[in-house]
Specification:
By secondary structure, the chain is α/β, with parallel strands linked by helices. Helices cover 34% and strands 20% of the residues. α6 packs parallel to α8.
Amino acid sequence: MLKTRKACCNIWLISWLFAFCFPPVMADTITAPLNKLVLDLDQMNASYRFYLAGHLYGDPRNRDSLFPASTFIAYINRINSDNAQFFVSLGDNYRMTKEIYLTNFKKSVAEKLKIPMFNAVGNHDVTNREVYEKEFGKTYYCFRYNMGLFIFLDSELNAGNIVGDQLDFFVTTTQEAIKDQEIRHVFIFSHKLIWGVGDPKYQVIMKNVNSGSGYTSNDNFRKDVQPVLVNLSKYKSTYWISGDVGCSWSIPFFFHKDLLTNITYIATGIGDTKEDMIVRSNVDSSGHIKFNLVSLTEKPVAKVENYGLDYWENRKKQLSVGSYFRFGVFVVISLSIFLYLF
């Protein structure tokens, strides 16, 4: 009786994981939600490449635009010619879930991109959650490709808290990954930088996300998610990658490997600025991962490791000094004009 009950539980677990970890078509294929292209698992190469980009719709102040960022649209043909296997969007693909924005996103981006396009939903993607799910399907899921497990979380549910069914999904998926000897790395994607909430060392990053909305009530990452993440990182190379950055007042890219836990945190986004960039990710046949930055504007970029905590601490200080200097100059000029006139 006990064996029968255990077997039933195992069958239920496998079925449950299959439903979330393999978007529908067949067991040997994965259908990408945004452009419905199929990632063929039978044609996996020993080495592979994928792209990462966040906040594709660009500058929030450009309210008259009905299209995603021009810098990204102009670069799509180069992505198509690069022999990458798939593309990961980190959310906010269009301004809002209205027909005109969806149509223009599909025509200008999703249908032009010739590789499967996956998504970690952002707040702009699900301004109407019912419409999004009807168009694109589940908002949290995962898939296995080669030696990697790719987990997509919905940071817009429950005010950014990973709770309920989504937390169960995350816990169970990571537990199964630990047992699977063939999985060497786990990539976790979310739009919001929920990993930075409540951690003093990420203060400079969290002060400069695109919008603070949706972060203030997030209080369960440290308690419920981080212990699972740290346990996972003991067995697998672990990366958490987010996309709620990129605007002119934010940062275009962040990279930090936590030496205590061996977890790498990355944030990347687009804002219709001269610093717009995306990430080209290469995994070689031995499982070594290399992230390279690709400028969308031809502005020179450095190695990803250069954009860590020290870089952004120093740069934000320099920007603050520059702002105070410009304000001082403005005051002196204004006062001089006033004294001259009166």
